[in-house]
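Example 406, ligand pyridoxal-5'-phosphate.
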Amino acid sequence: MTDWLVPRMRPHRATIFGEMSVLATELGAINLGQGFPDTDGPATVREAAVRAIREGRGNQYPPVHGVPQLREAIATHQHHWYGLAPDPATEVVVTTGASEAIPAVILALVERGDEVVLFDPHFDIYTAAIALADGTCRPVSVLPGTLRPDIDALRDAVTSRTRLLVVNSPNNPTGIVYTPAELAAIAEIAERTDTLVISDEVYEHLWFDGHPHTAFATLPGMADRTLTIGSAGKCFSLTGWKVGWVTGPADLIAAVRTVRQHMSFVSGGPFQWAIAEGLALPDEHWESERRSLQARRDHFTTGMSELGFGVIESEGSYFLSTDVRPLGFTDGRRFCHALAHAGGVVAIPEQALCHDERDGAPYVRWALCKRREVLDEALARMAAALPGLRRDATEQVGDPLSPAGG
Ligand SMILES: *Cc1c(COP(=O)(O)O)cnc(C)c1O
């Protein structure tokens, strides 16, 4: 078979999310791999979409940069929560989910060879988009053990060749929320090196007690150099709707708009109207979503600790990260495959989201955004399967493929 794919995209052929979801389907396993909720978002927002379709709002091409009512609602939301005041006419662009926002920003700003700095493990769309732009990715490993951003390593990685720095807090896949001190240090690096920042804040409302989200653009000097990405899918548990946005200074948004209009042109007409209504929901809506996820986090965290995993506290996002070494494993990928087959539960090995697989080797990501019964069933299955898996792991000591193979 001829391989027609351009070489720069060949390393991106398979995604770990696709691979593990196929495995979950094949085995009939519980899929705690892919990060989508198993209950649909607010009925009022879903009804608003039905109404928009019935009333003929958005059934034809909406305005190219987004329905004005939605851009207005995004600006109002940024102001209400963060005191930011983007101009809906020039400083907001609606995208086909945050998944389109990311390549639109990178293709608009990154020239061949320009460097983009991000933390490993990373959300995979970033590296694919950097490859599309023919840019150069400069990964910085998070601190082993805590999975927190390594600020000193970041300081070394950001240079005059850096065009963009990616910040993602609450973080996918680690579940870490950056502290004000970490964010201030990152901002200082961006300022000193005159680097632009993408702040991926799709989990802005999904942080847990004691770890509030800070919008990066609110840090001193950052509003002028930051493009902030949001996602209605993540805000409202409606990941299939694919409505996202970018906000930032008019000159940067103008560049993003130019590229993005040639990607999907427009999408999700009626959904845009519905999300405009959703963004105006009272504060209690966001608080109750947050609390609901936090309760499931608490429950699943306790269960995972009791099973013997090393748990890295989830501070936000849809995810919990664990270390499999206390269970006798060294390699997360091998662990995930063994667990899928023997235990019927699927998770994501974080090493697949690292440039150097050794970095994420013992860490595994679990989706918390599932119904409590589903999390309980996963815990029960693991309780049954782990003793056998641990025995196998012990017998594998001395295996030439350990620790980084498989
Ligand atoms: C889910 C996710 C996205 C993509 O969001 P969509 O709106 O579903 O396209 C972008 N960034 C991160 C970190 C995510 O977890």
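Summary: Residues 15 and 124 are 8 Å apart (CA to CA).
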